[in-house]
Design brief:
The chain is of the alpha/beta class. The protein is 31% helix and 13% strand. It is built from 6 helices and 5 strands. Helix 5 runs parallel beside helix 6. It is globular.
């Protein structure tokens, strides 16, 4: 029987509350936790990059904290995947995000994470729930994703996370193929 290797991991790992469960002691940095995490798990999702493009120093810290066969999935920064800027108050009107699906910002992100790309199982574009104020529907979403992925660098494993269950249509899946 031909079996594929099963990798077990978590979405993030930087939790001091895991001391005693996963970690032997409280650590100073996320990379310090990652080194001990990698002794028990073979993969992890880097969700903290959703909030900002990481520094090259952080990327190199993560790389040096794990063995060469350790695998990652990472989230693309929200400045690239949010259609609108986050509101500071509920009375504030929605403002379009000028960086939404910006190839230039995405390439800056890929440049920053380049040392980890050989260990990357997926670079994930996480989209918030897209109501009618943010996106007209699955047809528009499919067009934007198709255009973006058509311009994005080849050879990188991409993943799409949508929060809209009504988007899970035949045309959506065709777009992803």
């Amino acid at each position: 029987m031909n079996r594929k290797a099963l990798r077990i991991g978590t979405c993030s790992w930087n939790f001091s509350s895991w001391v005693g469960l996963v970690y032997s002691q409280k650590r100073r940095t996320a990379a310090d936790y990652l080194a001990e995490y990698a002794e028990q798990f073979r993969t992890a999702e880097i969700d903290s990059w959703f909030y900002a493009i990481p520094s090259r120093a952080s990327v190199l810290e993560y790389k040096s904290a794990v063995p060469a066969d350790f695998r990652f999935t990472c989230k693309v920064p929200q400045e690239i995947t949010l259609t609108h800027l986050r509101k500071k108050s509920s009375s504030e009107p929605l403002q379009p995000n000028p960086g939404f699906l910006s190839l230039e910002r995405f390439e800056s992100f890929l440049e920053a994470i380049e040392p980890l790309l050989p260990q990357m199982d997926a670079v994930m574009l996480e989209f918030e729930y897209l109501n009618k104020q943010k996106m007209s529907g699955v047809t528009e979403f499919n067009r934007l994703i198709r255009d973006f992925l058509g311009r994005a660098p080849a050879g990188i494993p991409y993943a799409i996370e949508t929060r809209n269950k009504q988007y899970l249509t035949h045309s959506y899946f065709e777009t992803l193929l």
